[in-house]
Design brief:
With about 190 residues, this protein is α/β, with parallel strands linked by helices. It is built from eight helices and nine strands. It folds into two domains: about 35 residues, no CATH class; about 150 residues, Vaccinia Virus protein VP39 (Rossmann fold). The model has no long low-confidence stretch (mean pLDDT about 95). The protein binds S-adenosylmethionine (SAM).
Length: about 190
């Protein structure tokens, strides 16, 4: 069974399409059925993010807004800014998973540009703007993380989605870049065999 054959196309805008398949939303971007997000990843995302979100939060990559909703589920979160580069993704997200929460602010733009320009400081910063973790992703992630450190409040956390299929060598670079504490490291590692 394949989501784009057996599923139902429920939203489309420019190069973004959302299918409903097997009870879950599937986000495809661009030609060639590039699957960027499946709603069922909420389990993985929530276990990775844990109960870290609080205060002023920043997220790079909206996708289906699954992580956004999870972050906003914490009453300790006073504000969440989500930066998404692709206007088509924002459009389909609003059609299928609109978030009605006064604490949520959506921005259309490049995550790095936003980080370099913002005058705000954040308590929790979450990166999920890539679909795999490879050499190229790691190179860019390192730049993002270093820039993010400058807008992080004392005691705040920088986290990024960990793909459990990451090859060992790249996974260890990923953990080095994030410089996560032991608890978070163990939680992320539990996905990785
Ligand atoms: C894997 S999806 C995010 C999934 C999301 N965490 C969720 O829960 O649904 C990655 C998203 O990041 C966006 N993106 C890619 N590069 C970006 C950038 N430089 N700045 C902001 N968003 C970016 C993509 O358009 C895509 O919507």
């Amino acid at each position: 069974m394949i989501y784009f054959i057996d599923g139902e196309l429920i939203a489309e805008h420019g190069e973004a399409k959302v299918y409903l398949y097997d009870g879950f939303l599937h986000l495809e971007i661009g030609p060639g059925h590039n699957l960027w997000m499946v709603e069922s990843e909420i389990e993985e995302l929530s276990q990775q993010i844990g109960d870290l979100p609080r205060g002023n939060c920043l997220e790079i990559g909206l996708g289906l807004g699954v992580a956004s909703k999870y972050i906003l589920s914490f009453p300790e979160v006073t504000k969440l800014t989500t930066v998404e580069i692709n206007p088509d993704v924002i459009a389909v997200h609003q059609m299928v998973n609109y978030i009605d929460d006064a604490r949520h602010k959506g921005i259309n733009g490049n995550g790095l540009d936003f980080i370099l320009q913002t005058e705000e400081k954040y308590d929790f910063i979450f990166f999920d703007h890539y679909s795999i973790i490879d050499e190229d992703t790691l190179e860019i992630l390192e730049v993002y993380v270093n820039a993010a450190k400058k807008i992080l409040n004392k005691g705040g956390t920088i986290l990024a989605w960990f793909d459990p299929y990451t090859p060992k060598e790249d996974a260890s670079k990923f953990f080095d870049i994030l410089n996560v504490d032991l608890d978070t490291y163990n939680r992320l590692q539990s996905y990785y065999n």
